[in-house]
Write a structure and sequence with these properties.
Elements: H1 5-8, H2 24-41, H3 46-50, H4 58-76, H5 94-115, H6 121-150, H7 152-165, H8 180-200, H9 203-221
């Protein structure tokens, strides 16, 4: 007996979506976009620090990065938002809609119960945008390009290795002792998001789940360093 659409998402059983493959040259431009944002500018504006320039407030910095990423995808890589998984609600399947609502409600209610007293609205919003940006860069842009050029398995794994050990979380390797335990957790969570995105082709799912999780965890721990 087949599973109801209300349960299929929990097993990552999403209906296949017909989409034309991204042109190899466009995939290469997506990779260049990733390098420009994460390698040159840096997820925490490392380039400004190197140049001795003042770093804008966290929310403004992340908003600038998010806008730059979307503009580069559209006008440099010449790839539509649809092709990196930013689908309009009307194109979502019933399974995606049900899974999305269930997870958002459960995580939001659970997070509010566990961490509600520690949440600060402005910092919470900043963390939401930060989590969304990470998924746009590492799943929407990087993984989309790598899967097109390397195939599904290699693309997912290489993308998640860069998510774990690349510019975003590299500072864990510089700690004394190195934060290998945290990196293992990041790799496992990142792999789940990578597979979820590959199975669903819907970036809103992983970006929203990541954003809410990041907002609760960072707000509860007051981990401002991650946004500096």
């Amino acid at each position: 007996m087949s599973l109801s659409s209300h349960w299929r998402g929990h097993f990552l059983l999403f209906e296949p979506r017909e989409r034309p493959p991204i042109d190899p040259k466009a995939a290469l431009r997506l990779l260049v976009t990733y390098v420009l944002l994460e390698g040159l500018l840096g997820p925490r504006f490392e380039l400004l620090k190197i140049l001795g320039l003042p770093d804008p407030p966290a929310l403004l910095r992340i908003a600038i990065l998010l806008a730059a990423a979307l503009l580069l995808v559209r006008y440099f890589a010449r790839v539509s938002m649809h092709d990196i998984g930013l689908l309009p609600w009307r194109e979502w399947t019933r399974t995606e809609k049900s899974y999305f609502v269930q997870v958002v409600v459960l995580v939001s209610v659970g997070g509010a119960i566990l961490f509600g007293a520690r949440l600060h609205p402005a910092f919470f919003v900043t963390c939401l945008v930060w989590g969304f940006y990470q998924e746009l860069i590492y799943r929407g842009i990087l993984q989309t390009a790598l899967v097109r050029r390397l195939g599904a398995v290699a693309g997912v794994l290489v993308g998640n290795l860069l998510f774990t050990f690349g510019p975003l979380h590299f500072y864990y390797l510089l700690q004394t002792p190195p934060g290998f335990g945290m990196l293992a957790v990041i790799f496992a969570i990142g792999l789940f998001f990578a597979v979820l995105f590959h199975r669903s082709d819907n970036l809103w799912l992983v970006a929203t789940f990541h954003a809410i999780g990041t907002a609760f965890v960072l707000s509860a721990s007051n981990s401002t360093y991650l946004l500096q």
